[in-house]
């Protein structure tokens, strides 16, 4: 069975980025992401209405981390510690060595390769350090940019569910993309 240990917190550096622990002090930036209609348009989670919603989320993120049940990184530029996005491995199915990838990014950083760089680093961490066998991502089929970045990172569509989720007053489809660990 998978036995992740996120202590000490694994800070990941890439060419341009630092993926670091999300702190209480990041609440304002995370609130901007989670309260944005543009950022959240394809995410079937409630949009944050108050900073308290975001503070509660940070508490949940911290609890998951402490229990080794999931890990969230804040995405920052190397020359600026302000949070511009987040990326996570969560919904860990420890008995199956499988985790789910999730991510959000501030719109001003769209189409700059930031998320691709983050995904590559987190996939490497998931496969090399955590020893995951597979990583999945659940995506709204209308979210073409997200599907494109998943496919660029060698994820393949594994399942498609018709009108299986109720989001923003209507039933919507969702798809599961996954990638297997090439070293297994």
Compose a concise summary of this entry.
With 184 residues, the chain is α+β, with helices and mostly antiparallel strands. The chain has a domain at 12-133: Gcn5-related N-acetyltransferase (GNAT) (Aminopeptidase, 3-Layer(aba) Sandwich). The chain has helices spanning 27-34, 37-40, 51-66, 114-129, 144-152; strands spanning 12-13, 17-21, 71-77, 80-93, 98-105, 134-139, 156-167, 170-180.
Question: Would you mind describing this structure in some detail?
Answer:
The protein is α+β, with helices and mostly antiparallel strands and 184 residues long. It has a domain at 12-133: 3-Layer(aba) Sandwich (Aminopeptidase). The chain is 29% helix and 35% strand. It is built from five helices and eight strands; from the N terminus they run E-E-H-H-H-E-E-E-H-E-H-E-E. It has helices spanning 27-34, 37-40, 51-66, 114-129, 144-152, and strands at residues 12-13, 17-21, 71-77, 80-93, 98-105, 134-139, 156-167, 170-180. Strands 1-2-3-4-5-6-8-7 form an eight-stranded mixed beta sheet, sandwiched between helices. Helix 1 (27-34) crosses helix 3 (51-66). It is globular. The model has no long low-confidence stretch (mean pLDDT 96).
Distance between the termini: 15 Å
- The oligomerization state is single chain
Query: What is the general shape?
Result: globular
Q: How much helical structure, as a percent, in the residues?
A: 25-40%
Strand order of the largest sheet: 1-2-3-4-5-6-8-7
Q: What is the fold-level CATH name, i.e. the topology of one domain?
A: Aminopeptidase
Q: What would you report as the Rg, rounded to the nearest angstrom?
A: 16 Å
- Tally the helices: 5
Number of distinct beta strands: 8
Can you summarize the main beta sheet?
Answer: 8 strands, mixed
> What amount of the residues lies in strands?
35-45%
Quickly give the structural class: alpha+beta
Topology as a string of helices (H) and strands (E): EEHHHEEEHEHEE
CATH superfamily of one domain: Gcn5-related N-acetyltransferase (GNAT)
Point out poorly predicted stretches. none
The chain-level mean pLDDT equals 96
Query: Which CATH architecture of one domain?
Result: 3-Layer(aba) Sandwich
